[in-house]
Structures are given as C-alpha cells and as structure tokens.
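Tip: read the tokens left to right.
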C-alpha cells in the first residue's frame, strides 16, 4: 500500500497553467474576431489611408524662384 508521491510545486503550477489556458480560451471567444472580420478591418484601414493620401495637399515651389 504505497501512495503516489506528488510534488506539490509541480501540481500547483500545472493547475495554474490549466486555469490560465481556460481563461484565455474564454477571452478568445468573448473578445476575439474572426479571420474575415480582421481582413475586412485591414481593407477598410487601407482604403482610408489611400483616401487620405489622395486628399493631401503638397506645397509646391515655383521653378523660377531661386532658393
């Protein structure tokens, strides 16, 4: 009748890891975005950047004015 020897430090760390992983899984489902949503956001950001660059006014220096 020998009992299984348990290292409490390893057991405590293993339990903490499993709890942390469970919390991460819950957060992924609650706050995560799907791949399609991320791609749509990237496309919208790129479109906004293009539109902003298109409306940018650049200062032009006349050719005949010496510097």
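Filled-in amino acids:
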């Amino acid at each position: 009748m020998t009992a299984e020897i348990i290292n409490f430090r390893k057991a405590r760390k293993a339990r903490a890891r499993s709890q942390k992983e469970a919390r991460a899984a819950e957060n992924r489902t609650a706050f995560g975005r799907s791949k399609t949503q991320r791609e749509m956001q990237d496309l919208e950001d790129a479109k906004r950047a293009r539109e902003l660059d298109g409306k940018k006014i650049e200062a032009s220096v006349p050719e005949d004015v010496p510097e």
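The chain has a mean pLDDT of 90. Residues 8-31 form the longest helix (24 residues).
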